[in-house]
Amino acid sequence: MGAPRWKPNVTVAAVIERDGRFLLVEEMTADGLRLNTPAGHLDPGESLVEAVAREVLEETMRPFVAQALVGIHMGRLQRPGGEDITFLRFAFTGSVAEPVAGRVYDAPVVANHWLSWEELQACRARHRSHFVLDSIGQYRAGQRYPLDLLHTDPSLYGRA
């Protein structure tokens, strides 16, 4: 029996722009209140596109339709005390509808904000990670990849 198999955490994020402003979530983290693009972990039995739609709905109360992949980012978080996590992050862009009546933000989200690029740059010390500006910057530069770049095998859903 060998050493435990290393597995990065797979996450998804959404870059959502409307009229030159970007939708950010304000959430409580171990480092206090931080701003992030709507994002979260891939759950078992869901595709990347399904995961980003679920995360956006949970964190913004808004249905999301992914239209393109903006980028794939890999990074490492090391904290005092030994926490060492590698993330593989898939950033999408798409459109959102109005908030669904009766829904509330999933914890730890406390608010949503529509911020301009200039406002985002001015508050970078409050960003959850540098991936916030990285992915929005890639979006602003026109970086888009078709969703058919991603393939979800039917075996994920228990079908051969």
From TrEMBL:
Keyword Membrane in annotation: no
Keywords: Hydrolase
GO molecular function terms attached to this record: hydrolase activity
Domain Nudix hydrolase: 5-138
A Pfam family annotated for this UniProt entry: NUDIX
InterPro entries: NUDIX_hydrolase-like_dom_sf, NUDIX_hydrolase_dom
Protein name stated in the entry: NUDIX hydrolase
Organism: Ideonella dechloratans
